[in-house]
Amino acid sequence: MLKAKIVATGSYLPEKILTNADMEKLVDTSDEWITERTGIKERRISADGQTTSDMAYEAAKNALKESGIKAGELDLIIVATVTPDMPFPSTACLLQNRLEAKKAAAFDINAACSGFLFALSTAESFIKSGACKRVLVAGADALSKFVDWEDRTTCVLFGDGAGAVVLEAATGDSGILSTDIYSDGSLWEMLKVPGGGSKHPPTKETVKKGLHSIKMRGNETYKIAVRTLESLVTDTLKKNKLKPSQLAALIPHQANLRIIQATANRLGLPLDKVVVNIEKYGNTSAASIPIALDEAVRTGRVRKDDYILLEAFGGGLTWASSLIKW
Ligand code: UT7
How would residue 106 be classed by pLDDT, with cut points 50, 70 and 90? Predict the structure, then answer.
């Protein structure tokens, strides 16, 4: 049976660092509050004029270089993002152009912070069906450009970045063992950027009302995330007939250290098996899992034949997991 196998990873973070001390100068907050409630110490901010596709391009270049596969050999490019360069064309088409991946079809996926795993699941289906052999999946977001820098309840949380993986069709027992994706649109109001679409097309009024920035019902979202992720990870392991102790690493979406700890506790996993980089980058939305995965691979925390579990939760609401034998 065909499997989708991640053969290389890459990531990119913008240079500019905004620390919690910098945040204290912008809004009524403190390093102590941000650290205790979220685990974040600093985040990266894309430069003026630097777009989501610019960051995705850097991450994709790194992943392709690592894979030894040429951009021209790709059959498909999927970009997970909620901060596209523009409403259309898709960021994936802009990336395809930059990479000169002439043979690849390209489209975006919008599943907010779960976007990378939704895109991975889509890539897996294309590969398992035999429709594609080589697929590039990127998760890239520039949420700093959609943050209300006067709203302390959201602006301290988010950062920018991109991660990418190259997948190939493979036989054998390593590769993606499962991906599971879920949505509950009845909770769409929990986390949103209300303006800029057909509901509230951009006008002077929508700008004045602040409709183009992120609104989140943080504490409610937090409680749903903890509950949902706890059952998601146990169900995923059960489905794959694995015990938590067989996992080499849990690679969670980096939204809040307390959410990550709650999920690890539910599995009885020691924290040294959990890949955490939220202190450096904050919540980078669709980019957070592929960035963490790339760091884990590069630092030798993920090795051949290891079982790793990826999981995410985000706007939509959406949530997803993937179990991989590396
Ligand atoms: O990534 C996808 C999905 N997103 C998430 O999963 C995020 C989920 N939510 C969270 O991570 C947390 O809810 C937050 C980090 C956003 C907030 O933490 P919390 O423990 O849920 O705090 P809270 O919203 O209940 O607020 C507690 C207090 C409030 O003050 P009062 O009303 O108790 O006086 C807030 O106004 O903390 C206040 N507060 C702040 N204080 C200092 C909120 N933001 C800040 C801030 N600095 N930046």
Answer: very high
pTM summary value: 0.97
Do 11 and 26 sit in the same domain of this protein?
Answer: yes
Domain edge (last residue) among 127, 154, 172: 172
Q: Report residue 1's pLDDT band, with 50, 70 and 90 as the boundaries.
A: confident
Q: 39: CA distance to ligand 1 center in Å?
A: 12
In the listed set 172, 202, 234, which residue is the last one of a domain according to the structure?
A: 172
Q: Which of 62, 93, 113, 277 is catalytic?
A: 113
Domain limits for position 160 = 3-172
Catalytic site residue 265?
A: no
Q: Which of 37, 148, 151 gets mutated to test ligand 1 (max ligand atoms within 8 A of its CB)? A: 37
The total number of structural domains that make up the chain: 2
Residues 121 and 269 in one domain: no
Q: Ligand 1 centre from 188 Cα, in Å?
A: 19
Which pLDDT score, from 0 to 100, does residue 119 have?
98
CA–CA dist 37, 77 (Å, integer): 36
**Ligand 1 mean position to 158 CA, how many Å?**
13
Which residue carries 């146990």 as its tokens? 234
Structure token pair of residue 193: 């950027």
Ligand 1 neighbourhood includes 152 CB (under 6 angstroms) = yes
Quote the percentage of the chain above a pLDDT of 90: 100
Domain shared by 21 and 98, yes or no: yes
Contact call for residues 104 and 97 (beta carbons, < 8 A): no
Catalytic status, residue 113: yes
φ/ψ of residue 307, rounded to 5 = -90, 130
Q: Identify the CATH number of the domain in which residue 139 sits.
A: 3.40.47.10
> Does 55 share its domain with 164?
yes
| Helix/strand/coil percentages in the chain, nearest 5 | 40, 25, 30
Q: Is 283 a catalytic residue?
A: yes
